[in-house]
């Protein structure tokens, strides 16, 4: 089975889907990750001469993504970098849709993982719009799994209560997922002068170090979303944001 994971930035795939990727690879499915932006602006708040510029951050994040992918069990040919500039994906939607259509047309995935349409980061929202548009244009049949990274507590709880939420138990691969998260040192550690805190706060990261991964799942048939059917997968109790 062909599976595509669309990640707006280098780290989203591991935070939201790392355990699922490991399990799918071990089940011998063909899993590929598509990084949509270069992540180069994650440290723009450290705008001082002694800190790395966007070009260096871009290289750091690419190397981290490659290391995380290796830990998740992916090979180099299963990683694609679209390299749109960080925080500009919304302005690149027409061009990105064409590229994503090419990827989807070649892979013909049975499952697609992508950001939730209500994720509050603009690159994540744009990624959802891009992939959704490409799926519709190609009239694909696929199961869609939407994950959420950035959201306030109220919105997150509403999403987790919706009838299309499913959970995947990743407890058996959790330690390996944690190692993959740690590979993104530029995001989870303090590395540079003048940096007071990690880019990703500890409470946010901890939310993705839990034994279940949660997704809003729906079926696309001929590029159209199908009505939700009953019969949800197991949902862990007590899950919620730690921040």
Describe the structure.
With 243 residues, the chain is of the alpha/beta class. The protein has a single domain, classed as 3-Layer(aba) Sandwich (Rossmann fold). It has eight helices and eight strands. It has helices at 12-26, 54-72, 93-107, 122-138, 153-160, 174-182, 185-188, 202-207; strands at 2-7, 30-37, 79-84, 111-115, 142-147, 165-169, 212-221, 224-225. Strands 1, 2, 3, 4, 5, 6, 7 and 8 form an eight-stranded mixed sheet that branches. 38% of the residues are buried.
Secondary-structure blueprint:
Elements: E1 2-7, H1 12-26, E2 30-37, H2 54-72, E3 79-84, H3 93-107, E4 111-115, H4 122-138, E5 142-147, H5 153-160, E6 165-169, H6 174-182, H7 185-188, H8 202-207, E7 212-221, E8 224-225
Parallel strand pairs: 1-2, 1-4, 2-3, 4-5
Antiparallel strand pairs: 5-7, 6-7, 7-8
Helix pairs in contact: 1-2, 1-6, 2-6, 3-4
List keywords for this structure.
eight-stranded mixed β-sheet, single chain, alpha/beta, 243 residues, disordered C terminus, 8 helices, Rossmann fold, globular
Quick summary:
The chain has helices at residues 12-26, 54-72, 93-107, 122-138, 153-160, 174-182, 185-188, 202-207; strands at residues 2-7, 30-37, 79-84, 111-115, 142-147, 165-169, 212-221, 224-225.
């Amino acid at each position: 089975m062909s599976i595509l994971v669309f990640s707006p930035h280098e780290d989203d795939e591991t935070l939201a889907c790392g355990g699922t990727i490991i399990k799918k690879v071990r089940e011998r499915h063909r899993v590929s990750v598509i990084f949509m932006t270069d992540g180069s602006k994650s440290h723009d708040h450290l705008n001082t001469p002694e800190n790395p510029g966007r070009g260096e951050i871009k290289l750091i994040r690419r190397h981290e993504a490659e290391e995380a992918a290796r830990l998740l069990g992916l090979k180099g040919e299963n990683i694609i970098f679209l390299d749109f500039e960080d925080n500009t994906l919304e302005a690149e939607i027409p061009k990105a849709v064409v590229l994503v259509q090419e990827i989807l047309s070649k892979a013909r995935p049975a499952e697609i993982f992508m950001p939730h349409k209500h994720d509050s980061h603009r690159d994540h929202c744009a990624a959802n719009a891009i992939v959704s548009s490409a799926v519709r244009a190609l009239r694909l049949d696929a199961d869609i799994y939407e994950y959420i990274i950035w959201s306030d507590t109220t919105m997150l709880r509403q999403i987790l209560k919706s009838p299309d939420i499913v959970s995947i138990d990743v407890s058996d691969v959790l330690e390996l997922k944690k190692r993959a998260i740690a590979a993104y040192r530029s995001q989870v550690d303090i590395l540079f002068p003048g940096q007071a805190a990690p880019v990703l706060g500890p409470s946010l990261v901890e939310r993705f170090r839990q034994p279940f991964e949660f997704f809003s799942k729906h079926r696309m048939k001929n590029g159209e979303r199908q009505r939700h059917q009953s019969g949800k997968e197991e949902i862990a109790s007590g899950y919620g944001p730690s921040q």
